[in-house]
């Protein structure tokens, strides 16, 4: 790729005055003191100091002698699941860190915000390269120093970073707005799906879950020549998704259940983490493993499956799932359906359930619209980065 006049392709070691990382030890954490962050606190474009720990002035001084993050530097997560995440240091106060790389741009050659943008631009390619090795993602300091970067003149870097920051601000505003709508939906579920002050005029009946929902589903007949659409459930009531489609001959455990009609799906091995959801008409014809329970309304049920699905997103329902699960470790607990069906819930009249479902469905639609808008902004920014960070489109300085 040919570069504009004045642009050079180089490596980070040649445009950074220092590349190092935080402590590899774990200092004693305190209730107050000097902020102490790790890789989990570094998100793309943001350092989450609100969730940080604290260390003593003495421990900070020892760490800071080797790794001294300052305003204008860039942090890069270089180990674990967040590897590749990058953020500009926008803090003008001291802090310490662990297992995060520190990149100090040479101010005469490289602007910190430009460096952040460029690392975000190459992140997907970087992650693909790291994951090809099969082990836990890791970037050594030597590897970081050898990473390529395209560098225009500093003033042009600053202008490019300024333009991209406009999209960053729009994305942050949209993200904050989405969070508010999600919080509103959670609060609405709490207020409307359970007896309380907001709906004290409604008639609620205490019933066992098993009186309203019954188990269904059985192992499907196997065919090695058939294509199976495999479904899974995300944690934290994240919904059902199509994982992959495989021929029967490609599937090792040949025991599946088919979703034949709308039902409430429970993934027994992960239900304590909210892995349950309504399987709607769009999921009919998909298959799940035998580790899933399927529930449908009983013959005389007074409970709408959609209403129960919204109920299931509340913390009090998560607690019921935990109570009905057995094991010595949260990640190895097994759900007991019989116990769950014996749990009591309060059910309002069907007319009220339908009204609540309409309200919450409207909020679902609003969340989807806002998510799509954010995706559009991110796509626009990626396209802009492709043009600005490669010199295909120049900016006026």
Structure overview:
It is a single chain. The protein is built from ten helices and 23 strands. The protein has helices at residues 12-15, 57-66, 112-131, 141-145, 154-192, 209-212, 305-311, 315-323, 337-341, 350-388, and strands at residues 8-11, 16-21, 34-37, 42-43, 46-47, 53-55, 74-77, 86-88, 96-97, 100-105, 148-151, 204-208, 213-216, 227-233, 240-247, 256-258, 263-267, 276-279, 287-289, 292-297, 325-326, 334-335, 344-348. Helix 5 (154-192) runs antiparallel to helix 10. The two termini are 23 Å apart. The model has no long low-confidence stretch (mean pLDDT 94).
| Total count of domains | 3
Structural class: alpha+beta
Q: Segments where pLDDT lies below 50 for 5+ residues?
A: none
Distance between the termini: 23 Å
Helices, by number, come to: 10
**Computed CA radius of gyration, to the nearest angstrom:** 26 Å
CATH-derived topology of the largest domain: Adenine-n6-DNA-methyltransferase TaqI, Chain A, domain 2
Give the class-level CATH name of the largest domain: Alpha Beta
Roughly what fraction of the amino acids lie in strands? 15-25%
